[in-house]
Amino acid sequence: MIVERRVELRFDRRSRDARTHTNLSAVRQDAACLWVAGDETATIERLTETTDAAGDVTCYDGQRSFALADLVELPAGPGEEADIEGLARTDGWLWAVGSHSLKRRRVKAGQPDAKARRRLASVIREENRFILARLPLVTGPDGLPEIVRRDGDRTAAILGGHGDSITDLLEDDPHLAPFLALPGKDNGVDIEGIAAHGDRLYIGLRGPVLRGWAVLIEIRPETHPGLPERLRLRRLDGSALYRTHFLDLGGLGVRDLCPDGDDLLILTGPSMDLDGPVRVVRWRAAATVDAPGIVHAEALEVLGDLPYGNGDDHAEGIAVPAAASGAGTRLLVVYDSPAAERHTPYGGVLADVVVLPGRPGRTPPGAFTL
User: Fold this and answer.
1) Which of 47, 133, 207, 330 is positioned for an S-S bond with 190, CB 3.0–4.6 A?
2) 3-state DSSP helix/strand/coil percent for the chain, to nearest 5?
3) CA–CA distance from 67 to each of 74, 88, 109, 131 (Å)?
4) What angle do CA 113, 272, 67 make, to 5 degrees?
5) Neighbours of 187 (CB within 10 A)
6) Selection from 244, 251, 250, 286 nearest residue 265 by Cα
7) What is the mean pLDDT of the chain?
8) Cis peptide upstream of residue 277 (ω within 30 degrees of 0)
């Protein structure tokens, strides 16, 4: 895939001080706005497009921040990061998911060997990482979407913190349970993508990768009866609370998910602490599958590779503008640890715009232009 152009995302001083702009982990398009999140805070940011005389998007700015703690009850309170790794939007809701991963302490440059060994033996669990949040969207006075705690009978709600997180669900899973005690960067359970299609949520795992097979979890959350601020999972086919799908992504894990009609676009990358390779893959008609799946490589279309750096430029989020779905779909890609050349003088970073290869019989691109 060739990078067609780059577009600037501008952030305010507070977000720059919090390093949100250099830790982007999720993005989703919403008409003229982008919802983005970083993995070092517990906030969701809204950026709004600026266009030139030809109607082309020149940048996204006018940032507005929404704190998760103002919307839902976080298990560890507002002071701890939520490590948001995925955003999804459907039917007037915005979904946000934490990594659900454990952390192993990093070894810092210049540390004595004994201290480095102690750090490598230290594994941390941060409770705010183990959440899934469903947030109502409304149209604000300025005509732009905004997140609210309550809109009529629609209420912001959360799954997790009460022994009911996605990883709690996996404690007896024959494939994933052995990986729950491992930190995410050690091929442990590590959520890094979410996509919504109707009442279905697809949760993509960066890890574990099982003998080369990546994992998607499919769930159907709903409002808990009598507790509108809580979610629960609806049983699938009257029995299981979730499905697992195993995809042959050539040994790579999932870095993000994005729906494109009934298809699912998958941003793939290494499960471990490596730079690349990074690819975009299409799982055709994923939303029509009504049983746990084994998806072989020949059923997955590799759309192309994305650039990556040496210790930087890690593609973490993808978004498809709704009007551009179809042949020649444009894809917006945001990066964690952006390279120096991506930083702008205005306190922003540059995202990539790529054009995905089209397919005969698909709808031509819409009016959206980046």
Assistant:
1) 207
2) 10, 45, 40
3) 11, 17, 33, 14
4) 95
5) 17
6) 286
7) 91
8) yes
Q: Distances from the Cα of 193 to the Cαs of 51, 53, 145, in angstroms?
A: 29, 35, 22
Please report where in the chains the tokens 């007896």 appear, as a residue: 172
| Contact in structure between 281 and 311 (CB atoms under 8 Å) | no
- Whether omega for the bond prior to residue 208 falls within 30 degrees of 0, making it cis, is yes
- Cα–Cα distance for residue pair 205/304, rounded to 1 Å: 20
Give the chain's largest Cα–Cα span: 62
- Whether 281 and 256 have beta carbons less than 8 Å apart is answered as no
Give, in order, the Cα–Cα distances in Å from 46 to each of 33, 34, 66. Answer: 7, 6, 8
Determine how many CB atoms are found less than 10 A away from the CB of residue 325: 19
Cβ atoms 75, 160 nearer than 8 A? yes
The b-or-e profile of 115-140 (16+ CB within 10 A means b, else e) is ebeeeeeeeeebbbbbbbbbbbbeee
Let me know: does 114 contact 101? Beta carbons within 8 Å.
Answer: no
Read off the DSSP letter of residue 178: G
What count of residues does the chain have?
Answer: 370
Coil, helix or strand for 129? helix
What's the one-letter identity of residue 41? T
Spatial separation of the C-alpha atoms in residues 189 and 205, rounded to whole Å: 7
Q: Which residues on adjacent β-strands are paired with residue 157?
A: 134
pLDDT digits (tens, 9 = 90+) for 264-280: 999 999 998 889 999 99
pLDDT digit string (tens) for 247-263? 999 999 999 999 999 99
CA–CA distance, 209 with 214 (Å, rounded to integer): 5
Residue 174's pLDDT band (cuts 50, 70, 90): very high
- The pTM score is 0.93
Phi, psi of 233 (to 5 degrees): -100, 130
Residue 21: φ, ψ to 5°: -70, -20
CA distances from 266 to 14, 46, 291, 317, 318 (A): 32, 23, 19, 10, 9
